[in-house]
Design brief:
Elements: E1 2-4, H1 13-26, H2 30-40, H3 49-55, E2 60-62, H4 70-83, E3 87-91, H5 94-110, E4 117-123, E5 131-134, H6 147-151, E6 157-168, E7 171-182, H7 193-196, E8 203-206, H8 211-218, E9 225-229
Helix pairs in contact: 1-2, 1-4, 4-5
Length: about 230
């Protein structure tokens, strides 16, 4: 995930950082968030996204075209709406779009804010933003140090050992193997895990967003913009 900001943005991201830290420490619900916001102090933002775009102060939160963890997406949307972003860019998936809007509305119930844009990202060909890592954990040697787990910034790889029953010609036996693998909805295809695998077991899968699904999202009243990753075909 990344945050794309203009160098001349007047928003106070120190306020957003303080709010982030306090929310993580407290693990609080909506009422707790409201209390924290009141203690930190969040200014009411009334500038429309269109005006921010015209004046060069437009700020977009990029959740990731392939990041589909709806809980994290909702929480990010809540925090960054309070921080004053003009737009939230997310995966073109109905559940993800719903999570973004839940976060926005939760923030607006805490502080009276203007409605920001929701943008979906789509592609028409292979693109680095539209890919996932995958591997079969049972193919991984037990002595592997699991560097993929350490380098994943999204905590999208989970590996633990377990017993597996296998049938051999001389009867059934239990074998210890790795369990888990890539948590698909958390993987956003950053690619950090590909080169560090000592056994070259990790594969990349690419995909193109379904045009019909995208069209259905665009007719909703809670999607305002679209970002198209294209090779110009």
């Amino acid at each position: 995930m990344a945050l794309s900001v203009s160098t001349c943005t007047p928003l106070c991201f120190q306020t957003q950082a303080r709010l982030n830290v306090k929310m993580m420490r407290s693990n609080c619900g909506p009422q707790g968030v409201k209390t924290l916001v009141e203690s930190v102090g969040i200014p009411r933002i009334i500038t429309a996204p269109q005006l921010s775009l015209q004046t060069g102060n437009w700020v977009k939160l990029i959740c990731g075209a392939s990041f589909e963890d709806v809980v994290d997406v909702r929480n990010l949307s809540l925090v960054y709406t309070l921080a004053g972003v003009d737009c939230i860019d997310c995966a073109a998936d109905a559940s993800v779009v719903g999570a973004v809007n839940e976060g926005i509305e939760a923030a607006r119930r805490i502080v009276p804010l203007r409605r920001l844009w929701v943008m979906i990202s789509v592609n028409d060909d292979e693109d680095l933003h539209f890919r996932k890592a995958e591997f079969d954990p049972e193919d991984c040697p037990l002595d592997c140090s699991r560097p993929c787990v350490l380098v994943c910034p999204a905590n999208a790889i989970l590996l633990s050992t377990g017993k597996s029953s296998e049938l051999h010609h001389d009867g059934s036996s239990l074998q210890e193997k790795w369990r888990g693998g890539v948590i698909t909805e958390r993987c956003y295809g950053c690619g950090r895990c590909f080169p560090v695998c000592p056994y070259d077991k990790i594969r990349v899968t690419t995909y193109v967003r379904d045009a019909k699904t995208t069209a259905e999202l665009l007719v909703r009243n809670d999607v305002d913009a679209i970002e198209i990753h294209t090779n110009g075909r």
